[in-house]
Design goal:
The chain is an alpha+beta fold. Helix 1 crosses helix 2 and helix 2 packs across helix 3. A hairpin with a 4-residue loop joins strand 3 and strand 4. The longest helix has 16 residues. The chain is globular and about 40 Å long. Helix content is about 40%, strand content about 10%. The chain starts with 7 loop residues before the first helix and ends with a strand.
Length: about 170
Amino acid sequence: VRPRLAGAEQFTTALSGIRGEIDVAIGDLDELSVLAGVPQGEAVQTLLASGCRLVITKRGADGAEATDGVQTVRVPTLATRVVDTVGAGDGFMVGVTSALLEGRGIAEATRRAAWIGARAVQVRGDTEGLPTRAQLEQARAVVSRTEEDLRNATIISPIDGVVLSRDREVGDAV
């Protein structure tokens, strides 16, 4: 859903037929609002109430928040340098989708998505920052650490040693 490509009302109407059929919803607040057909402040709860099993709100430089209605996970952005934002959303989707298909939980899926999204914005192009399977497996040990370990970790990307960490927590479970 890209509300900027057409009017939000057009998308809201066009998507009305799939409401209640969505298992996983991922987007920023504008996109989730259009998808749910309600104002931004009601979007996440409306999607969950309609049967959506997982809603992930992308917050750009403020990271992401994922909830299944029981557990909520907040993950800050891991990007320390932004070169090109093209491909960041696709990278985020790759992270969530691959983790969920592997049976990972929402915390690991959201952390992986943030990590891949951060890689994507640190290089030019839409796919150049996406990891190979080998790079993903190498990084998975870091991404899967306990929250206490992550508070003190510095994550080094295989992209020329780019540091992907913040001085804040990576994945507060609420």
